[in-house]
């Protein structure tokens, strides 16, 4: 592929992925105002705005970041499975995109619908959704900051697939000893597993999707 096209895809990738982080920051600020404001008009406007930002900014940017990231991996020497940092970013981005799309069409849409209900002067009753959305936005911001950090530092080197010879070592008398994943990768896998388990437990404790207060 021509260097110009590669750079163009990188511009799309950095613009969409870091733009997604910016949109999440705005969403987080609005979700806090929605929880704390005592003004009915502001609360209504906040949840309607969050729904629009989610639908027309965050979801498209997340899909653009994912697609352009996979394309960038495949058209450069980085590869999709050759480096741990690329694999970690892929896992984090797929997880974040799935959660975002799922919550957009359940929790965020329901909060906007609730905000528009009731008497105009009365503070809308968003229920547990208000707290849930603050938590979701804060969680997404942390994941995206981790992803951005991985992109810049590119840690942990090559995967076994990327460099079998460099990771496997031949020990006299013991044959070939399979190399272990770097400690950072193992910590990340354990942390991701713990986060996923917490989310599943919280959802089950709250009664699945009905746990969003719907
Ligand atoms: C929200 C998620 C993501 C964020 C915030 C993000 C951010 C970034 C940033 C800031 C860079 C530029 C780093 C530099 O040039 O030093 C970059 C590069 C890159 N990203 Fe992502 N990225 C994300 C998702 C992904 C995904 C899902 C993949 C693929 C699986 C990916 C693959 C790459 C590759 C291969 C590069 C290096 C491009 C090159 O140097 O040619 N990214 N990313």
What order do the helices and strands follow? HHHHHEEH
What's the rounded overall pLDDT mean? 85
E-strand count: 2
Q: Helical content, roughly?
A: over 70%
Strand content: under 5%
The main β sheet shows up as: 2 strands, antiparallel
Structural class designation: mainly alpha
The distinct ligands, each listed once, are:
protoporphyrin IX containing FE
Q: What's the shape?
A: elongated
Straight-line distance between termini = 49 Å
Query: Rounded to an integer, what's the Rg over CA atoms?
Result: 21 Å
How does this structure look, described?
The chain is mainly alpha-helical and 214 residues long. Helix content is 72%, strand content 3%. Helix 1 (3-36) runs antiparallel to helix 2 (40-75), helix 2 packs antiparallel against helix 3 (84-116) and helix 3 runs antiparallel to helix 4.
Q: What's this, in brief?
A:
This protein is mainly alpha-helical and 214 residues long. Helices cover 72% and strands 3% of the residues. The chain is built from six helices and two strands, in the order H-H-H-H-H-E-E-H.
Give the tags.
214 residues, mainly alpha, two-stranded antiparallel ribbon, 2 strands, elongated, disordered C terminus, binds protoporphyrin IX containing FE
């Amino acid at each position: 592929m021509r260097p110009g096209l590669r750079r163009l895809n990188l511009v799309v990738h950095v613009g969409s992925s870091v733009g997604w982080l910016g949109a999440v920051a705005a969403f987080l600020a609005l979700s806090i105002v929605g929880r704390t404001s005592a003004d009915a008009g502001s609360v209504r406007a906040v949840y309607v705005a969050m729904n629009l930002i989610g639908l027309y900014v965050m979801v498209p940017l997340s899909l653009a970041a994912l697609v352009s990231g996979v394309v960038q991996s495949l058209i450069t020497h980085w590869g999709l499975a050759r480096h741990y940092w690329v694999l970690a970013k892929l896992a984090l981005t797929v997880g974040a995109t799935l959660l975002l799309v799922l919550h957009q069409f359940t929790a965020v849409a329901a909060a906007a619908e609730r905000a528009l209900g009731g008497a105009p002067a009365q503070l809308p009753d968003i229920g547990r959704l208000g707290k849930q959305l603050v938590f979701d936005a804060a969680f997404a911001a942390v994941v995206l900051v981790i992803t951005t950090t991985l992109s810049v530092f590119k840690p942990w080197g090559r995967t076994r697939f990327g460099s079998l010879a460099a990771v496997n070592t031949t020990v006299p008398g013991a044959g070939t000893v399979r190399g272990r994943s770097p400690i950072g990768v193992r910590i990340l896998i354990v942390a991701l597993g713990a986060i996923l388990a917490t989310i599943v437990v919280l959802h089950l404790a709250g009664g699945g999707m009905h746990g969003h207060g719907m």
